[in-house]
Here is the input.
Amino acid sequence: MPVRHPAERSDPMRAILLSLFLLAAAALAPAHAQQAALPGLTEGVDYTLIADGKPYRPVPGKIEVAEVFGYWCPHCAHFAPLLEKWKAGMPANAQLVLVPAMFDPNDAFARLFFIAEGAKAVDLTHAGVFRAVHETNELPRNASIAQLTAYYSRQPGVNAKAFAAAQNDERTLQAKAANAREFQMRSKIPGTPSLVIAGKYLVLGNSYDSLLANASRILKAIGPAAKAPAAKKPAARKPAAKPRT
Here is the structure.
């Protein structure tokens, strides 16, 4: 006769506590489902609800659409132009944010992205880095920091002084890397590319088109974000006094 672990033996009090726990869970489940439900969308098919999720870089009055990507990822290279086109049709209260994947805490591409971000050069270099890795082979998929630094320094429009300043700001670079890694782990990112909306919804889809279509549907379903404070109206000017004659 097998010997059971003591925790597996019959315990009346344990059974009562378990029953109470199950009743409480059953009572809470409908409320959770009602709160999380998105009209016209199915959890587990169109999106995954992220427990305790929050945006990567929240901005008041904006719904964040965060793309977790990697320059070394061929799927991200194919997805990038589609995402850029989709971005043009986003609601006015939505904002696209790029998050370099941090599966490797020492990822050179992620570090150079943060440097380019600090130098305000992402718009000048983002598409070009994908081309250099996946089309022209100017950069290998395992490019070193030295190779990437040389590449970025050759790109038109990149301010050399701003780039050097961002590159030497180690404290900011480490903080950005830690924030990206924390966001990735909190959002349970399964791979790249991934889209996370409002920090709460990991978008699902069986193709790039369905992924973007579901992202649009989620944005429509969750509605406007918290409104930014209304701008104060300028005080009415008093009419200038007429000069005395």
